[in-house]
Design brief:
globular, alpha/beta, 13 helices, UROD/MetE-like_sf, TIM Barrel, single chain, Cobalamin-independent methionine synthase MetE C-terminal/archaeal domain-containing protein, 6-stranded parallel sheet, two-stranded antiparallel sheet, Met_Synth_C/arc, zinc ion binding
Length: about 400
């Protein structure tokens, strides 16, 4: 049977999962970390704020409701620390990192060690979901028929591989090769996805800045100059595609899977890399077995729409033409034109009409509003205005569609 285009999810208007936290939530998280608030105090505020932000999303017309990632410190959450075989390290030697990995480079240039570090110390095994209870609470806030629309975001499976230098991602006496290491990561994600599916989850978005880093000339130059590397950047990119395909190989047909690709989104609206999708487009769109691509497209750093000619007719693209980094509002008519321009390239690549191509398209902000819990350089009203704009763009292009 030929692959089918997946709809609802994704929806014509989407956001990328993370939303600005309230001051009350930020305060209680800080107090909890200092031992000045209890777990019960934290849970109470988290649940209240999640309930409130779900209601806000409903009012703004977003079916793919998220919990705002309110239980997380960073967008990648708790998946890796929750596995046997990984360990969080507070004081890690900066020499273990690839200094040219864009987010690592940004930290080092600022005189800081890279953020939260999780390293492989032994055989990797899934020992229980750190997300399923959060998903169940989110599901309890909506009608049963809405549960399938809820969106849960997951960390990229390659996140703790690209960051570390060759030979530093895992102990050689534990895994003899990348293939062995990735094999156990794939199994761990299979277990996680099955648990979430059994709980009613039908809509997953992987957040993967690493894939966009392979569009960065600066990173690729650093890769070539690193004598430790035994694989080319292209070979590693191909390994990452295979890793995704392996971990998704057992997913049910009604489990919508998307991948969000951006160039970084840190405190104060910082990005980490630049470069269009051109050099990865064929593998990304034709070989990666996902249903939907959520792509950064708000500034020239993401390049043009030409790579979308590689998008097959059975896959969706959500165009992140509205920035989540700053409060200035884009011109709605200009954004509508950009969506039409993108659809023309999809149409050209598949020899179909622009109208048919638009059936594969939706719109969103280019990234989350708070990939780090402190959030971007935008306030709550600014975030709401951005979400309203995205919804208005979608309503104009696809009237009457979710």
């Amino acid at each position: 049977m030929a692959p089918q285009l997946h709809h609802n999810p994704p929806f014509r208007a989407e956001h990328l999962g993370s939303l600005l936290r309230t001051d009350a939530l930020l305060d209680v998280k800080t107090a909890f970390e200092k031992g000045q608030a209890s777990q019960a105090d934290l849970d109470t505020v988290e649940k209240k704020d999640i309930k409130d932000v779900v209601q806000l999303q409903k009012e703004l017309g977003y079916p793919a409701l998220s919990d705002g990632e309110y239980c997380r410190h960073m967008f990648w959450g708790s998946f890796f620390p929750g596995l046997d075989g990984f360990e969080e390290v507070n004081d890690i030697d900066a020499d273990v990192f690839r200094p040219y990995a864009p987010d690592v480079a940004a930290f080092l240039e600022a005189g800081h060690k890279p953020g939260e570090s999780v390293i492989c110390t032994g055989k990797i095994k899934h020992v229980g979901s750190t997300y399923v209870d959060q998903f169940k609470y989110l599901a309890s806030l909506v009608a049963p028929e809405e549960v399938k629309n809820l969106k849960l975001t997951l960390a990229a499976p390659n996140w703790y591989h690209l960051r570390y230098k060759e030979g530093k991602a895992y102990p050689k006496d534990v895994y003899a090769s990348d293939d062995e290491y990735f094999g156990d990561i794939a199994k761990a994600y299979q277990d996680e996805l099955q648990i979430l599916y059994d709980a009613g989850c039908r809509n997953i978005q992987f957040d993967d800045p690493n894939l966009a880093y392979f569009c960065s000339d600066k990173m690729l130059d650093g890769w070539k100059a690193d004598s430790l590397n035994v694989n080319t950047a292209d070979e590693v990119f191909q390994k990452y595609i295979k890793l995704y395909n392996d971990l998704l190989s057992k997913r049910p047909a009604d489990f919508h899977i998307g991948v969000h690709i951006c160039r970084g989104n840190f405190v104060g609206s910082r990005h980490f890399s630049e470069g269009g999708y051109d050099r990865i487009a064929t593998q990304l769109f034709k070989e990666l077995n996902v249903d939907t691509y959520y792509l950064e497209y708000d500034t020239p750093r993401a390049g043009g729409f030409e790579p979308l000619k590689e998008l097959p007719t059975h896959k969706n693209v959500i165009l992140g033409v509205v920035t989540s980094k700053f409060p200035e509002l884009e011109d709605k008519e200009e954004m509508k034109k950009r969506v039409q321009d993108a659809a023309k390239f999809i149409a050209e690549g598949n020899n179909i009409s622009v109208e048919a191509a638009l059936n594969q398209v939706g719109v969103s902000p280019q990234c989350g509003f708070a990939s780090h819990r402190e959030g971007n350089a935008i306030d709550r009203n600014g975030m709401i205005n951005k979400l309203k704009l995205v919804r208005d763009i979608a309503n104009d292009i696809w009237p009457g569609q979710l």
